[in-house]
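User: Second chain of the day. Same drill as before.
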Amino acid sequence: MALSVHYNVYGCFRSPTEDLDLAAAAVDAGFAGVWIGDHFHPWIDSRPYTHHVVPWLGALMQRVPDVPVGTSVTCPIMRYDPVLLAQAYATLDQLAPGRLNIGVGTGEALNEMSFHDGEWPSWGTRAEMLIEAIGLMRQLWSSDAYLDHTGEHYQYDAIKLHTRPAAPIDIHWAAWGPQSCRAAGRFADHLITAASPAQIAETIVPNLRRGLATAGRDPAEVDVTTEMPACVGPPASLTAEIRERGEHIPGTAELDNPDPRDIQRVADAQLATMSDAEIQSHNNITDDPSMLLDELAALADAGVTRVLVGSPCGDPQATIDVFADEILPAVAAW
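Assistant: Same format as last time:
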């Protein structure tokens, strides 16, 4: 059972500088990499920050040497022009070759709708856009020729990246449902998600493997990454903090809602109906590190190869310290 444990700063709870400090502390503690979310608006209005990931990753790779870094996740199809994003990521890779990973997804309305003319596209249309954007970025990263591109969603004449990546940049498709998991296997290098061990074992991995089989690819060469919250401390006080801050993501029903204030109202209403035990389970709030070790083992058994651990409440440094002292050595011994 091989599992790589990385740190997720999220990029929405602390200032950019504080997140750099936390990332450095996580790497010093033994976490194998650092990832960050990529939002324009936060999921919910109570979250105080949303960093732009490109300058932040550049600063991170200068501050923290050698470990992999990544986004969880970027939508390269509306808010970003895929050609300009390809240039930005190529530049980052030149600064720190071989360390960059890109999680990509079809986007949510709260991040992308402000940058899109017309009605919010269906998931199928956004998936088509993402497939085209991935192919275009890969072409630009690998070609030393000027390219003309006439696609269904993007058109460019005579474009070329003069600063190309120094090493291959791995693309991780964000997937939950059967269709997106199959698409990850066909069109991306790896899969990234935020899901329970049961969903990963029963839906995500089987459908990823179907997509890989269609593409003629070896599952052994493909990573399955998932986010995992972990909050070590007194459960009662951490649960009260979650309630006070309204820290809850309502779920897929709000993916088409462009306003984090509306999503916050839904989150607050859902929190009011949740028991303390439900909140603690949802956020992995515990004063018993063995519970977190059991969750990591369940994820590994489900087929996960990389876990992105982050703390949505409490003192993140306290959780990092527990991982350094008890959890990471135990995982390394598996």
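The mean pLDDT is 97.

User: Great, on to the next one.
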